[in-house]
Amino acid sequence: MTEVPTSADIHLIQRCIPHRYPFLLIDKVEEIVAKERAVGIKNVTFNEPHFQGHFPAAPIMPGVTIVEAMAQTSAVMVALSLDLVDKEPLVYFMGIDKVKFRRKVVPGDVLRMEVTTVRGGSKIWKFEGKATVDGEVACSAEFSAMIDISGGQG
Q1: Structural domains in the chain?
Q2: Which strands, in side-by-side order, build the sheet including 28-33?
Q3: Of the N and C termini of the chain, which has fewer Cβ atoms inside 10 Å?
Q4: Cα angle for residues 65, 21, 33 (degrees, 5° grid)
């Protein structure tokens, strides 16, 4: 296995996870410690499609997309840790627990997602995540996922 990169730009992210516009919710992963933790960044912009309806007069990033951004950050870390780059792994939520929303996330914010592995293996992983804006907690959650390394091929 090759050495795990300590960061991932948008090009490497797209080689790790299948998400694309409008559902690719991270712009970079600036810190990666193999199998242990990662920090993802999302630059929140007004031209994202969910702001057309959530809410037109007061755009707020939907909470579920914040949790999804944390999950995508963890999926990049797992893909790099397990040498799954270019192998088209799919990641499925198995559970989302203890979710708390503490602050609105609006256009112009930089969302920082910190995810830590609680339990990891080859297929089933559990994480703790925290998303912040300017040091203020916007969301925290625990979530688990299954990694399908067959890339959806059965």
Answers
A1: 10-148 (3.10.129.10)
A2: 28-33, 37-43, 110-119, 124-133, 136-148, 90-101
A3: C
A4: 65
Q: Per residue in 65-80, pLDDT tens?
A: 999 999 999 999 999 9
Predicted confidence (pLDDT) per residue in 82-112, tens digit? 999 999 999 899 999 999 999 999 999 999 9
**pLDDT tier at 150, thresholds 50, 70, 90:** confident
Q: Is 11 a catalytic residue?
A: no
Q: Return the CA Rg of the chain.
A: 15
The dihedral built from the CA positions of residue 146, 122, 116 and 108, taken in this order, carries a sign that is: negative
Q: Facing residues of 117 across strands?
A: 127
Q: What are the residues whose beta carbons fall under 8 Å from the beta carbon of 98, sequence distance 6 or more?
A: 140, 141, 142
Read off the tokens for 154: 């059965």
Per-chain mean pLDDT for the chain: 94
In the set 11, 19, 50, 54, the catalytic residue is 54
What is the SS3 assignment for 127?
strand
Total-model pTM = 0.95
